[in-house]
Specification:
Distance between the termini: 61 Å
Oligomer: single chain
Largest sheet: none
Number of strands: 0
Number of helices: 17
Order of helices and strands: HHHHHHHHHHHHHHHHH
Shape: globular
Helix content: over 70%
Structural class: mainly alpha
Radius of gyration: 26 Å
């Protein structure tokens, strides 16, 4: 009897310990999960704060130190966006000159500036600081992309790289849409990842809306679309082919719905159904002509006031195509120049010469190392192309737009987030091999 009682007590005690251990284990797992979430939150806060501080400080001094801005905070495209915003504020309609409607520039950024000026007053520094805040979101988005495809170390390295990437800081201080546009590019990639992993109608709609807004911000988004078609058909292997077509068509219809109001406005006001902007032909002929150098001279070609903007755009496209047809050898030579400029960290669109800056050799050497790392990471990631292949889309879009228009450092920016991720993949692999080599050496 005593033995039975002892056994019962032992069994009861063991069961109690198992129960306690189970509760403790679940509690520990919950605490680890909470700690992990808090750690990620802390990472996000740190990335945003550091990125914003660097961008905000540069925004404060950019007008005096930026070698391209040259003391003029409204140089180049920025002046046009600002004039349209002020015209909207004054009730003069969408155009650089109040009362003269236009669609030469895409609408989203000037409308955003007009809203910002209406709320905070007309102050260019405010616009630059808000651009800095947009730019500070990019490291977080890069982290979210990288951690879903690789691991936490790759995500951290890529995110930190995007905090300090020089062009993100410099161009983020200009009153142009390029900084906010990178946020949209990252969101497009994130939504594609979500669709790839868990395809559903709400994500198709979200992707269509994001693509539409990105198009209204920078119509160069059009170069993403041809490369997204095979992605819809080949990467969504978890759903039947018919559903892949439905996904793609749904996204396209939502994209068209977002673009329709602006297109209808242009048809009614200007007489031309201009979808994004009317400067495509101007840019195309500016980059493909007998004097082309791989960039685009300011104020060339001369505008044609006698034509509507839609007619002018088609006229310039025809001139560019005619030059290519008549002199294909010269066109091929210009193509080489375009991609040489795309690979230079110091090229600027309006000048055949690269920018001269202190430490130019260090800048070029560092950028070459970055590109080599990115290419190495691309090769490594290509082993799982079906899963990681969507990262190619921003790069392919940049390459395609360079071939059609022109290349310079500014126009690499939509591809930079994925280049940073690939470079991080290569760096982490090199670090692991060095660590294992060191451990093996110490062990022997």
């Amino acid at each position: 009897m005593s033995l039975d009682s002892s056994a019962d007590r032992t069994t009861s005690s063991s069961a109690g310990r198992l129960t306690i251990n189970g509760v403790t284990g679940r509690l520990a797992a919950s605490l680890r999960s909470l700690a992990q979430r808090m750690t990620t939150l802390h990472v996000f806060i740190a990335l945003f704060v550091v990125a914003f501080l660097f961008r905000a400080v540069y925004s404060l001094i950019a007008a005096t130190v930026d070698p391209i801005m040259g003391g003029d905070p409204l140089m180049g495209d920025a002046a046009s966006y600002d004039r349209i915003a002020r015209s909207l504020m004054a009730g003069g309609g969408y155009g650089e000159v109040p009362g003269e409607p236009s669609a030469f520039w895409p609408p989203l950024y000037p409308a955003f500036l007009a809203g910002l000026y209406s709320i905070a007053g007309y102050e260019l520094l405010t616009a630059r600081l808000v651009n800095s805040a947009f730019g500070a979101l990019v490291p977080i988005l890069v982290y979210l992309i990288a951690i879903r495809l690789f691991d936490r170390r790759v995500a951290l390295v890529a995110a930190v790289g995007s905090v300090f990437y020089p062009l993100f800081i410099v161009l983020g201080s200009w009153v142009i849409p390029d900084g906010p546009y990178i946020v949209f590019v990252c969101l497009i990639v994130l939504l594609m990842l979500e669709i790839q992993e868990r395809p559903r109608a709400s994500m198709y709609v979200a992707l269509g809306v994001t693509l539409g807004l990105a198009y209204l911000l920078k119509p160069v988004t059009a170069f993403f679309l041809p490369f997204m078609i095979p992605w819809f058909l080949l990467s969504l292997r978890s759903v039947p082919v018919r559903h892949r077509w439905i996904a793609g068509i749904t996204t396209a219809l939502v994209l068209a719905a977002v673009l329709t109001p602006w297109t209808v406005r242009n048809l009614v006001v200007l007489g031309d159904p201009i979808v994004g902007s009317a400067n495509g032909g101007y840019t195309f002929y500016g980059a493909n002509n007998p004097d082309a150098f791989g960039g685009h001279y300011e104020h060339f070609p001369e505008r044609i006031p006698e034509m509507s903007e839609g007619e002018e755009q088609m006229h310039f496209y025809r001139l560019g195509v005619e030059w290519i047809r008549n002199d294909p050898a010269a066109f091929l030579s210009v193509q080489v120049q375009k991609f040489q400029r795309l690979a230079s960290p110091l090229s600027i669109s309006s000048s055949p010469q690269d920018l001269t800056v202190p430490g130019e050799r260090i800048v070029r050497f560092s950028y070459t190392i970055f590109l080599l790392l990115a290419f190495s990471g691309l090769v490594i990631a290509s082993r799982h192309l079906r899963r990681n292949g969507l990262l190619l889309i921003p790069l392919l879009a940049v390459l395609a737009s360079t071939a059609v228009f022109y290349g310079d450092a500014r126009y690499t920016m939509p591809a930079v987030p994925v280049l940073l991720i690939w470079a991080a993949v290569a760096l982490v692999l090199v670090w692991d091999r060095l660590r294992r080599s060191r451990e093996s050496h110490l062990g022997s």
